[in-house]
Amino acid sequence: MFTFFKRLRTLVGSELNALLDRAEDPVKMLDQFMREMETEIKEVESAVAVQMANEKMMKRKYEDEKSFVEKRDEQAMKALEAGDEDLARRTIADKHNHEEQMNQLNNSYEQASMDVRELKDKLEHMKNEYQEMKVKKDSLQARAQAAQTKTKVNRALNTFGSEHSKHGFERMEKKVLQYEAEAETTEEMKHTNHSLDDELHALEDNRVDAELARMKERANKHG
């Protein structure tokens, strides 16, 4: 009944930590330990209840037998007072037989009482130990969860900003620079084309003005 608690006491400290190191999931393992402890506590509680019932039964039988012995003592006295010595003798003999039974029942009752006290002490000890282990379990689970979270963060940091990512950023940066250069080149070509067209238009306008001037000069001569 107490095998798990005895085994558990040997696991406290470094041995428990070593066991947790080998466990796939310390949180689940610790929960399993607590469930096993709770099961054993319930078993001991049932045993205590049975023993308490046995103690009460022994006490009742002892008290019944004690009352019967007292009754036989009174009956023997009455028989003697009535002058019936033979009846008194037989009543006393029966009283002695029941006294032996009474003493045996008293011994059984005392033993049952001792067993109840012992089981209650063990049960109390188990419950106290359970509470201590519950506090330790909560602490270990919190530490395990913190360690697991830290491991996940560290793994993320190890891959964060990796060479692959950096090369990717550099490649995209070159692409953006290329796009910007192409945009600037297109803008310059646009301005260049506009300047050429403007010069050609200006040249055409000059030729028109020159021809118009010549026509005016001819017109003046004829006039």
From TrEMBL:
Pfam family, one: PspA_IM30
Compositionally skewed regions (Basic and acidic residues) per UniProt: 187-223
Spans through the membrane: none
InterPro entries, A to Z: PspA_VIPP1
Stretches the record annotates as Disordered: 182-223
Highest taxon in the source lineage: Bacteria
Entry's family note: Belongs to the PspA/Vipp/IM30 family.
Protein name in UniProt: Phage-shock protein
